[in-house]
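Researcher: Let's try something more involved. This one mixes different molecule types, so please make sure each is placed in the same coordinate frame as the others.
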Amino acid sequence: MSDPLLRVDDVYKSYGDEDVLKGISFEMDRGDVEVLVGPSGSGKSTLLRCVNRLTEVDSGDVYLDGECVTAPEADVNALRREVGMVFQDFNLFAHLSALENITLGLKHVRGFDDAKARERGHEHLERVGLAAQAESYPAELSGGQKQRVGIARALAMDPKLMLFDEPTSALDPELVGEVTSVMRELAEEGMTMLVVTHEMGFASEAASRMMFLDDGRLVERGPPEQLFRNPQHERTERFLERITRLHGEIE
Amino acid sequence: MSDGTESVRGADVFGGDRPTRSRAVLLVVLGAFWLWLLARWLVEWTGVPVGVPGEPFVDVALVGGPQTPLGVMVGSLPALAVGVYVTVVLTVVSIALGFVLAVPLSVARVYGAVSSYVSLSFTELIRGTPLIAQLFVLYYGLNLSQYFRGLTSFAGVTVDPALWVAVIGFTINSAAYQAEYIRAAIESVDPRQLVAARSVGLDQLDGIRYVVLPQGLRYAIPGWTNELVYLIKYSSLATFITVTELFTAANDVASETFRYTAMFTVVALFYLLLVLTATTIMSTVEDRVAIPGIGGAEGRP
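Model: All components are placed in one shared frame. Result:
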């Protein structure tokens, strides 16, 4: 098991004249929880989307579990089965109940029959503390509840890797805790997670490593305590100082 | 703030239950109309002994004899009921087949590459040319009715093969209009819904099928109902390719009796009742399939 679960190799991406990612390389092992921080527009979301190919890279490669997922012949749907994604604005299927949001992928991607999908759906709703909301529609749920359904939806597919794209940024401050605590549990259970977030409390407590991305480049990477206490770059220091002031103390 | 409370209270004072009451009246009227139609059809085609085929249930003599306007109206009712049958078959079959075509057309239009242009060309061609010209091309130009000589009955009732040419014409025409309504509705679905579907591992087609269309088709219901209402009325153009539908039935009586005003008034009333039936059914469908946060359900009690 020396192979990394995720290997990002010299990834470039630009939109028109704007270079968003300028040669990003890093590796993650199984069970790693990596928090990705950086100023707005630094390319964090784009990097995440390159991993499950919601965005195509211009050059460079992404390997998941030893397989090159950026190869033209790679099966993008098979890849996404292995990589769960949680969105900033939840993106729950608006016409489906909380339970059906989870069972849709199980039935039509995993090939579960209805009964088995529902059973698994209920298990995952229970896991995120929403057993009672199974029949509620997204419009009837609070932001925090929606995001927990979003996590359950991704998790039920039994992914090898979970991507979180600012999962708490659209939430009222008092609802952030219910989402980060679910994420913390997930980290403790050994899920491999790549998380874009400004919740420094979560980062310092749950992350095995942090990455600081600025202007499309990976400026600094290391254990959270190192980036917080002893940053090697001035840009990292300034950014983390600012973000910590805004988004909670380091425990 | 105070505006909101005021208007709510206002609604209560000025008969908050009025919509339900008028709806009940409507349902009674429509119920009577359809019961009468059903009885008429049974008499005409199965000889159920509640009346004589071709004779109204009411004695024409009671309304002033067969020559008076009212007498002509009453006397024409059996023929009109048969005409309604043809109009209903024509409308229902055409709108249903048109829908089957419209969904892939609209999906192709929104998500297709080459197929988007094919769909657009079809829609513009059909919407840009007169329906009557389309019917004439199909009936007189291509002489399509020759292929339907064997199809002279529908659900046990004798029909003119020309009816099926009309069905083809209206299906094609309605598909173009329905596709436009559905395209607009699909485009109003948040594109991130499809991104989310793809992120779970659904391919593009499954994402459209299981996520985009169930939402888009709900948004499409009001516009689609509009198309249904139009189709009921413009199905009367089938008269020009010899289909004896509702309008033809009325027109035939009118030209025999010269009671044009009376006949066109009664046929207008028939169309009105058919349209009200359609809108009542569709508003029920809209309520039935409503989901909190999607389309029509928003802001409804």
